[in-house]
Write a structure and sequence with these properties.
Layout: H1 2-17, E1 21-25, H2 30-41, E2 45-50, H3 53-64, E3 70-74, H4 80-89, E4 93-98, H5 113-134, E5 138-147, H6 158-177, E6 184-190, H7 203-215, H8 225-237, E7 244-248
Parallel strand pairs: 1-2, 1-4, 2-3, 4-5, 5-6, 6-7
Organism: Liquorilactobacillus oeni DSM 19972
Family: Belongs to the short-chain dehydrogenases/reductases (SDR) family.
InterPro entries: NAD(P)-bd_dom_sf (IPR036291), SDR_DHRS6-like (IPR051122), SDR_fam (IPR002347)
């Protein structure tokens, strides 16, 4: 029964995403890259935005060799002028995914004010700026999905948590503001996962961090990137979900 249900779910996703135009902002690595791969496999027409010319070129060429229609654009999505220019030159999209945002450690008292401000800016205001630029270019019935997060504590991840909470509020507001055209807004909230966001850690530090997070997670492990990516695909595929934050955190938010 379980296998049959999984097959049916995949068939529905294929039907709903086939030939859909999907834009992934931050699609050259981590969650964004995996969402691109899963969407391409479901027959979607995928475009990605990334800051690294080399990463983007390699990924696009790799997929073209597999006969997938992947398009790529190099730009800094935190720059409003670049975003405005991009959308003015491109057609409408059915779904837009954003993995924009960083991370930070440190509480409210032991962190520099500038560091807290930057974490909130990178997480919330950059995504708000994207929404203002992108929503007019989403087809009726389409969606925009952001990246929030769970886990951590205000005492050791102050700015990041404020940014995540702001994203959660943003999707609720956008869901109501966009309802006239049946456009949807949601967010995926993973807990810590070993992605490129932590590229500055050594291998030993990465392994240690993963062990620490796994020990605090009800399921006893960290997420696989494809597990988190499938949540974005689900939110694109389900036309009756809006204003929601989907936690993909192994039960961290419940503990």
């Amino acid at each position: 029964m379980k296998a049959a249900s999984q097959i049916k779910t995949r068939q529905v996703s294929v039907m709903l995403l086939k030939n859909k135009k999907i834009l992934i902002v931050g699609g050259t690595s981590g969650f964004g890259k995996q969402v691109a791969l899963q969407s391409l496999a479901l027959g979607a027409k995928v475009s990605i935005i990334g800051r690294s010319k080399n990463k983007l070129k390699y990924f696009v060429n790799e997929q073209k060799s597999k006969s997938y229609a992947l398009q790529g654009t190099v730009l800094d999505a935190s720059e409003q002028d670049q975003l405005t220019a991009f959308f003015s030159k491109n057609n409408f999209y059915d779904h837009i995914i954003s993995t924009l945002g960083g991370a930070m450690g440190g509480g409210f008292l032991d962190s520099q004010l500038a560091d807290i401000r930057k974490a909130i800016e990178d997480k919330f205001f950059v995504n708000l700026q994207l929404a203002q630029a992108a929503v007019p270019f989403i087809n009726a019935g389409g969606s925009i999905t952001f990246t929030s997060g769970t886990g951590g504590h205000p005492s050791n991840a102050s700015g990041a948590i404020v940014g995540n909470q702001a994203i959660n509020t943003l999707v609720k507001g956008l869901a109501l503001e966009m309802k006239s055209e049946r456009k949807r807004a949601n967010a995926v909230a993973p807990t810590w996962s070993p992605t490129g966001l932590w590229r500055n850690l050594t291998n030993e530090q990465l392994v240690q961090r993963e062990k620490e997070v796994a020990a605090q997670t009800p399921l006893g492990r960290t997420a696989h990137i494809n597990e988190v990516a499938s949540a974005y695909v689900y939110l694109m595929s389900n036309d009756f979900i809006t204003g929601q934050v989907l936690n993909v955190d192994g039960g961290v938010s419940a503990s």
